Amino acid sequence: MTSMRKTVIAATCLLALGGGLYATSDWLKGSTDEKVRTLAEIQPGLGTVMIEYGHRYTTVYYAAKGGNWGLAAYQLKEMREVQEVGETTRPARAQPLKAFEKGHLDPLDAAIKSKDWTKFEGAFRAGVEACNACHVSVGFPYIKYQLPRTFQSDLSLKP
Prior knowledge:
The chain is mainly α. It has helices at 3-16, 32-41, 46-65, 69-89, 94-114, 117-137.
């Protein structure tokens, strides 16, 4: 279990049991089961998770293109963690997400570690195709990732 998942679980438990940083009586009411149910209902769905995921996927590309392999590796690590949130909050989508990770993030990771732009670009483009095909297969054909022609970031994309 990753640190992100542990943190989410711990924070949820603290809030549900009334030991969080915020007064639970202000908004979180009822029995422990009711509090847990309320917290479960407000967890981010894949729509929210995928906004961050797509942004990081774009950042991975431009960081690698700029030769900032460290930033590319970091963004990929964060993608895996945010994906776990999606797998946890939407368990029906966990298998396709895990398959994408193995089939497309793992090859990106290998290309990043070897600092091989050609290998990276091929893995990235294959990931885009797989991502868009998955959206079609699960009933969201109108959600189509495309790499922006330019990318502005508050992070330095150069090493």
